[in-house]
Write a structure and sequence with these properties.
Elements lengths: L1 H27 L8 H4 L2 H13 L20 H7 L4 E8 L3 E3 L5 E2 L5 E4 L6 E12 L6 E7 L4 E2 L5 E3 L5 E4 L9 E10 L5 E13 L1
Antiparallel strand pairs: 1-11, 2-11, 3-10, 4-10, 5-9, 5-11, 6-7, 6-8, 6-10
């Protein structure tokens, strides 16, 4: 009877010792390291992720998300503006003055001058302006520009007035022949009244 009790006590002691050993092993075994981003993603991958996250807007940042700016092509108006040119005006005084009562075209001495179109390569249009009058206002006074180099009038140059008061009268657009030419003013009167020229000039427009 005593032996059975002793055997039972030994069994209980063994069971307690076994459980204590199991608990001690569990408490003292090394724990596995936690999984980190470095273990699950290469360094290059982490760098790219961090850059993307840094550019995203957050509740504490009102900055807009990055976007690609659209490319634009110059409009037609801007191109035209870039190549726009300037229109300039120049006056060339014509020497001399004079008068006549003839009803046929008559040269006015002292009004000769040379003009070369090569001196005005950007010229777009030209006009004759003459300050003249009809002495008594009885009829019509005429002035024109004559090209003595080729022996013909300058087309578009004829102007007229019936006023007794001198004033500038402008012609239509002139047709000047290329090259260096000698020009002269001519005058006539429709009646026996006197055409009186005070001064004249050429008005030239250029674009450059």
């Amino acid at each position: 009877m005593v032996i059975k009790k002793l055997f039972f006590i030994l069994m209980v002691i063994d069971i307690i010792a076994l459980n204590a050993a199991i608990v001690w092993i569990y408490l003292h075994q090394p724990k596995p390291a936690p999984i980190t981003h470095a273990d699950s993603c290469p360094v290059a991958c982490s760098s790219v992720i961090n850059q993307i996250i840094s550019t995203l807007p957050s509740s504490s940042c009102n900055c807009p998300a990055p976007s690609v700016a659209p490319t634009s092509t110059p409009s037609k108006n801007s191109v035209n503006k870039a190549v726009s040119k300037t229109r300039t005006l120049a006056y060339i005084p014509i020497p001399g003055s004079g008068q006549t009562q003839n009803n046929q075209w008559t040269d006015l001495p002292g009004t000769e001058f040379y003009l070369s179109t090569t001196d005005y390569p950007d010229m777009t249009e030209s006009y004759l302006e003459a300050n003249f009058r009809l002495q008594n206002g009885n009829g019509t006074a005429f002035i024109r520009l004559f090209d003595t180099t080729v022996g013909v009038e300058v087309w578009g140059s004829q102007i007229q007035t019936s006023s007794q008061t001198s004033a500038f009268v402008s012609s239509a657009k002139l047709t000047l022949r290329p090259g260096n030419h000698l020009y002269r003013l001519q005058a006539k009167s429709l009646t026996a009244d006197t055409t009186i020229l005070t001064s004249a000039r050429l008005k030239i427009f250029s674009v450059n």
